[in-house]
What we know:
The chain is α+β, with helices and mostly antiparallel strands. About 65% of the residues lie in helices and about 15% in strands.
Amino acid sequence: MIQSSRQARAAALLPAMAWYGVIWRFSSQTAAVSGNLSDRLLYRLMELWSPAFATATEPIRAAAVELLSFFERKAAHMFLYFVLALLVCFATRFFTRRMRGRMGLAVLACGLLAGLDEYHQTLVPGRSGELRDVLVDLCGAAIALGFLALPDLARWGRRSFGVPLPALVPAAVCCPELDGTDEVLLQGVVDLYAVKDGAVTVVDFKTDRVTEASLPEKLDYYRPQLAAYSRALADILGKPIVRRVLYFFHTGQAVEVG
């Protein structure tokens, strides 16, 4: 069982290692070979995508390729490390199941491998190593990891922003003058909540035009609504509400409501 687990881990690393081998091979090309390859590729792409390029004179075509080759090379860097980050994340699933841990390992691995690759290029005739290229590589890796994080971000957003109600709450929470034994169906949307150390902070956004003089009146007006939202959210989450906050966009002021 242990042996098969080790074999699975080793096999999971193979795609990332093979892809880094491709990167290493590209970096092993001399400046002349690498430049010729990228220019020929750019010529082909421009001829396919731009009728104006295809009909232009050779000096104009050469100038356009020279101008665009910088961006082509940086895009190639980003693409190579975009794929590498995905493959590293795939490989590290055997080492940790937490996505944050896998993403952290992917960033660390891509950073180290990008630095090693740039050092390797200093040993190749006509090539040089650039810190800027390491940062470009990491940008490609970051984009890949951003895509991987989207499902978690979406789930977090659905949990933390715009939480829809309905929920049944005691009538007295919404309207103190009503009988406390009755319940009302509360409908609305909790704008934002945050959980820290098992306790919840509820934030409700308001667009009212408020002044220092009218602020106490607004707080009294919205206090029952915020109390009802807090009661419903506490029942939904099973966690205590420790803070209730009204945020007024007009003044940019966050006011805690007791």
